[in-house]
Every structure is written in C-alpha cells, then in structure tokens.
Amino acid sequence: MKSTADSQHLRNSGRNLEVPFRLFLKSDGSSVKLICESIARIIPGKRLVCIGKWNDKSVAVKIFLSAKSAGRHCDREIKGVNALKNAGIKTPALLFQGNLLQDGTPLLVFERIIPAHNPQEAVLKAKTDEKRCELLKQITIVIAEQHEAGLKQKDLHLGNFLLANNDIYTIDGDTVDTRQMGTPLPKAKSMKNIGLYFAQFDPNFDHLFSTAFQAYTAKRSWSPDSGLFNQLLKEVKSQRKNGKKKYLNKIFRECTSFVCNKSWNSHMVCDRNFYYGEMKKLIADPDSAIDANRLLKDGNSSTVALAKVNNKLLVVKRYNIKNFIHALNRCPRNTRAWSSWRNAHRLEGLGIPTPKPIAFFERRWGPFRSTSYYISEYIDGTDLYDLITSDKSKEISIEILSKRFGEILKSLADACMSHGDFKATNFIAAGSRLFIIDIEGMREHIFKWSLRRALKRDCARFMKNWTNLPEVARVFHNQIKKIKL
Fold first, then answer.
1. Do the beta carbons of residue 197 and residue 209 sit within 8 Å?
2. How far apart are CA 192 and CA 197, in angstroms?
3. Which residues face 22 on adjacent strands?
4. pLDDT confidence of 397, banded at 50, 70, 90?
C-alpha cells in the first residue's frame, strides 16, 4: 500500500524515509500523481532525489525541502540545466517544474536515462588501461565543452556524470557556475577545474592523465605544452591534499556515506551500506560477537575474530586495555581503532590495497577513551611469510610479489607515510593483489628526513623475515633499492 507524503513528512523522516510513497503535484490548476519508488540521494531537511513514475514515464525527481533556500536552489538547478542544454551538452531533459500540491514545495522532474552507469565504477571495472583511458577522455572532452561554453561545475566530481550507450550526460545543474556563460573559461580557472576532476582518481591512474589532457587541450584549441601538463599535475596534487583533509574530517561524522552515533559513553561510525540487520547488533555488543566467533588472534594487546555479518565475512578487532597504567596512558589519546579507521581511508584514497573499513566503535567517558573496536572486510588470502615459506612457494613468483610490495612502498613514500610494523605477516596475498593490514601505527610525516628514517626502519623490519632465505632477501632488497628512499 503506497502512502501519501507531504513535505513535512519528507523533512521529518530524515534518512529513514520508506518507499514507495505518493506525491501530488500542482499542474495547470489540477493535481498530478507521482510515485516515488526508490531513493537515489537524501540530504536530510534540504534535498531529496528519488526514482519513480510520472505520467507513466520513468523519471528522476529532485525535491527541494529547505524552508529557507528551496526556491533559490531550484532556480539555480533550472538555470544550470538550461545553460548545459543551450551549450549543446547532453543532460537529462527537464520534463516538469512545479510544486507539491499541499504547500508549494518546489520540485523538478527529469527524464530517467536508462540504462545508465556510474563513470567511476566503469573506470574501476575496465580491464585494460586502453579502456580506462577512453572513458577518461570521454568525460574530459565534455568538461572541455563546458569550459568552452563558459560553464564550470563548482563541485566537479564523477558523480555529476552518467554514462549511457557511450554518451556522457552531465547532471546536477545546481553546481553549474553560469557567471561566464557565453565566454570561454580563462586558462587559470580551466586548469583549476580540470585539476579537480583528475584529483578524483587515486594516484594509480596518474599515468593515464597525459592522453586525456591532450584530448582536453585539443578540444579547447590550445597548443600542446609540456609545461601546461606539469602545471596540471601540480594542481592535481594540491587538490588531492585539500580533498584529503575534507574527506578525513567527513569520515568521523554523520553524512551520506556514514552513520555516526556519538554520546558521552561511546563513539561509533559505520559505512551506511553495511549498517543494517546483524551489523547493528554486533556494534551494540561487540564483545559477545567476538566470544561467539572464531578467533584469529587472542593476544594481550588485541583480540581478533572472524564473524559472518549479514552474509559477509568481517574481521572484528578489539584493542585491549592491559591494565590500569595502560588505561591512564591511552585514555586522553585517539584510540587505535580510530587510527585504523582513518588510516584505512587514507590508504583507499591512495589506491593502496587494504581491507575495506566497515566501522569503528570506542567506549568513552566524556573525552576519555577506553576499549575500542575496528571492523573491516575479510580478505581470503595468505600472509606473505606463510606463502613464501609454505609448500606452495614453488608455484609462486617471488619477483611478482616483490613488485607488488615495491608498489606499496613507493605509494607510501610518495604520500609521506610510514607503516610502523612491516612484518611479512602484515601483508596478505589474495588473487593478483597484495593487501596491507595492522595499520593503526601508520604515520604521516612532515619532514623528508623523518619519512626516510621511518621507511628505512620499516624496510629493515621487513628484511628480517628473510634472514634464512637469502634468495628471497636478494629479490626484495633489489626492489627496495629501486625506490631510492
């Protein structure tokens, strides 16, 4: 049974809005029914985007809920969409602009592009660099068309595009800056904006940027200039640094991606896609979940269990408080679960393989911290030491493993980060990838001398694993030398 909703219900429901529901719209003095079948995005109290049916058409509906700024944002969306359309840039057609029947809340109804894909997912799933580069070029050319028309997306990211049948559609007209419409965007502003686009990709994709940027300059009729590309790389580095700061603040609060519950007694953040069913029960009582499942480690400093949660295997790690003195020492500092959560998201941003962070939870007494828990995905693989010293050692290539290790080391060095515990057991080989774990001790360094000292200490610890395996030691030593720490 579909319930009828009004703007007050949409505002008050926050992120707990149940679908499907009906809305009635004003249209030429009469009412028209709209069925919302699924939620695409919610910004509680401000904006709602849903997928549904209107006049028997499949549509995307954007509803502006803010009591103060709804009209302004709706007008800006219309202006941005019309500017894109007039510039010949593909964007979903605006089918209806109007208001809810009950109280005049503004909303816009757009055609739904079917089938449509997220470009970021398409880039990540592409099996070859050639296909990835082609996708990057397609989007880059659309951005060049925007700039040539004097348009700029202020919050440029891959979520502002849809990929459909080899066409790129630009969405979210609200973010389109139209102040220079009709006059090509100046080079300085263009470089800043295109740098923001490339900064969305982790450094593993940097080698694709040159070809994509050549497509951009060709579309803008700019002469090829290696100095301009170097300027772009500097801009990308700067944008990544700014983006990282913003994102690392975001992962500790309530937002579209994360659920956050913070009180005098506890602090919890969980990936919103995992926060349902058994996950809620686990976070409510993590100790019982650890006791009821298979232990992977039962140490003095930490206890690690493998738990099946909502049909997914997850690793639950409890950082133990050893004694009263240890409790006094730890209570004013960030917990190790907090550090693991932050570092895991850092590594994800750098494209360094690590188990996906799912949640962290810490017990508190006001500002003072106690026992903490970190939950991540389970990687079904073998640690590097066991793999190399096992009977399977003849079936594997030490050269390939050393190359993957070298890629991780170089990425850490480029990001000015050290790990702190480079035991071979902290590297998990799974499929064609090498994952790094036990990341609570990772540090970011301001000074190069501090970074070099820490990484050399990491590498010395890593090489201790192969004291009795001189041939293995030689291969890894050669790989470390290539990094030139």
1. no
2. 9
3. 4, 35
4. confident
Q: Which helix (H) or strand (E) element contains residue 407? A: helix 398-414
Instruction: Please tell me the number of Cα atoms within 13 Å of 261 on its side-chain side.
Output: 15
Whole-angstrom CA distances from 413 to 208, 307, 352 are 21, 34, 12
Nearest by Cα to 175 from 67, 76, 88, 248: 76
Asked if 136 and 208 count as a contact pair (C-beta separation under 8 A), the reply is yes
- What would the two tokens of residue 82 be? 């019309």
Q: Between β-strands 302-309 and 294-298, what pairing exists: parallel, antiparallel or unpaired?
A: antiparallel
Cis peptide before 332 (omega within 30 of 0): no
Positions of E strands within 13-134 = 21-27, 30-43, 47-54, 57-64, 94-99, 106-111
Question: How is residue 24 written in tokens?
Answer: 């009635």
Dist. CA 74–CA 64, nearest whole Å: 7
pLDDT digits (tens, 9 = 90+) for 214-260: 999 999 999 878 889 999 999 999 999 888 888 898 999 998 899 99
Question: Where would I find the beta strands (DSSP E) of 140-222?
Answer: 152-153, 161-164, 167-170, 176-177
Structural domains of the chain, with CATH? 3-111 (3.30.200.20), 119-230 (1.10.510.10), 258-377 (3.30.200.20), 382-483 (1.10.510.10)
Cα distances from 485 to residues 218, 241, 450, in angstroms, run 38, 22, 11
pTM attached to this predicted model = 0.84
CA nearest neighbour of 376 among 333, 421, 437, 424: 437
62-102 pLDDT per residue, tens: 999 998 899 999 999 999 999 999 999 999 999 999 888 87
Cβ pair 307, 282 in contact under 8 A:
yes
Give residue for tokens 């500092």.
Answer: 333
Question: Looking at residue 323, what DSSP letter applies?
Answer: S
The whole-angstrom separation of Cα 269 and Cα 312 is 19
Assigned token pair, 89: 């840039």
Output b/e per residue, 98-136; b: 16+ Cβ within 10 A. Answer: bbbbbeebbbbbbebbeebeebbebbeeeeeeeebbbbb
Report the Cα–Cα distance between both ends of the chain, in Å, rounded.
65
**CA distances, 216 to each of 87, 191, 197, 465 (Å):** 17, 10, 12, 48
